[in-house]
From TrEMBL:
Protein name: Ligase-associated DNA damage response exonuclease
Record EC number: 3.1.-.-
Originating organism: Sediminicola luteus
GO molecular function, one term: ligase activity
Region described as Disordered: spans on this chain: 326-347
Broadest EC class assigned to this enzyme: hydrolase
Keywords: Exonuclease, Hydrolase, Ligase, Nuclease
Gene3D superfamilies: Ribonuclease Z/Hydroxyacylglutathione hydrolase-like (3.60.15.10)
InterPro entries xref list: MBL (IPR050698), RibonucZ/Hydroxyglut_hydro (IPR036866), Xnuc_lig_assoc (IPR026360)
Length: 347
């Protein structure tokens, strides 16, 4: 029996015909990387291949590595296996990885979203026979509001806090979410200050995207300077001594998990904004249908439930275990479990 074109192994997703791994989570000789988040681009591989927009990102994160950048749609051969990278729309430089060999085509999505965020290259449909999809938000209860409405709410929230003489502290991942927020903040309201992790990553990305000006918060930043303005910070800064400089402040979080009832309260946030860099349930279904694939492999997220739903629709769908997290690391296990139960009872 012939081996499948891509196999799920203890090191990662492996193409034995090319002797190359896709987003491996253990050190390997050659890795094709979908994007720069830590669960997909790990340290220790001998050679990295990725989209050229992702090269400065993973060099910033991983240091001195051997990496080759590719263009969108550029075909490259490894042991007569054809590979190409196609926009995933997840964050800047994020790719779907197309693999073709002996007339068979597989697509590994990594993480992806179909809504054009205005900073990432928009998602591209890639036809294939087998489609490997995340399902971070693979439940019917997840349905995103268009981002222009979310950003209107965020800017109105900021303006209200300014009028009350309070600093707005908005939390989002330092790579991807923070830049998406920054792109659409209204600088007519005030200045934008940043935590060092966000400032450093944004500086890496400024050559690729026009962002509003930001000011790094340092030990010399005075509390009065921050009053009425916006502070962008990673989730790890919440509850840390660093945030005391902001008093009086109001906190907000931008995440798909803000769709959970009680998630904001458990994380002691004053305001939650439902904004994700992943597909919602219907977007996942639409993406799968548009590929024309008959075989679907579900990874990281609501894998069992989503695969079962796909089988009911007539797909040959199964699940595979990976070490990718999507946005799952934003929640602790108890909150995730409680949220699952609520979502399932609301279906």
């Amino acid at each position: 029996m012939n081996k499948p074109l891509l196999q799920f192994t203890g090191k990662g997703i492996y193409c034995s015909a090319a002797k190359v791994y896709l987003d491996p989570w253990k050190p390997v000789d050659r890795a094709i990387i979908s994007h720069g988040h830590a669960d997909h681009s790990r340290y220790g591989h001998k050679k990295y291949i990725t989209h050229h927009h992702n090269v400065p990102i993973i060099k910033h994160r991983l240091g001195d590595i051997t990496v080759t950048g590719k263009e969108w749609g550029e075909t490259f051969l490894i042991n007569n296996v054809k590979f190409s990278l196609h926009p995933a729309g997840h964050i800047i430089g994020s790719s779907q990885i197309r693999v073709e060999h002996q007339g068979e085509v597989w697509v590994f999505t990594g993480d992806y979203k179909t809504e054009d965020d205005g900073i990432s290259t928009p998602y591209e449909v890639v036809k294939c026979h087998t489609f490997i999809t995340e399902c971070t938000f693979g439940l019917p209860a997840f349905k995103w509001t268009p981002q222009q409405e979310v950003f209107k709410d965020i800017n109105n929230w900021w303006a209200s806090n300014r009028d009350d003489g309070k600093t707005s502290v908005l939390f989002g991942y330092s790579l991807g979410k923070a830049q998406r927020l920054l792109k659409y903040l209204d600088t007519d309201i005030g200045k934008i200050y940043t935590h060092g992790a966000i400032e450093n990553m944004t500086e890496v990305l400024r050559p690729l995207v026009h962002f509003p000006p930001t000011t790094l918060i340092t030990k010399d930043t005075k509390k009065d300077e921050l009053s009425g303005n916006m502070v962008l910070a990673p989730p790890s800064a919440h509850g840390s001594p660093w945030i005391r400089k902001m008093v009086p402040f109001v906190t907000g979080s931008a995440s798909g998990w803000m769709a959970f009832r009680g998630a904001r309260r458990r994380r002691t946030m004053d305001r939650g904004f439902v904004l994700s860099d992943h597909c919602d349930f219907q977007q996942l279904l639409d993406s799968i249908k548009s590929t024309g694939a008959e075989k679907i492999i579900c990874t990281h997220g609501y894998t069992d439930l989503f695969a079962r739903y796909l089988r009911e629709l007539g797909y040959d769908a199964r699940t595979e275990q990976t070490q990718y997290e999507g946005e799952l690391s934003e929640l602790n296990s108890q909150e995730t479990e409680e949220g699952n139960l609520k979502l399932l009872t609301e279906r």
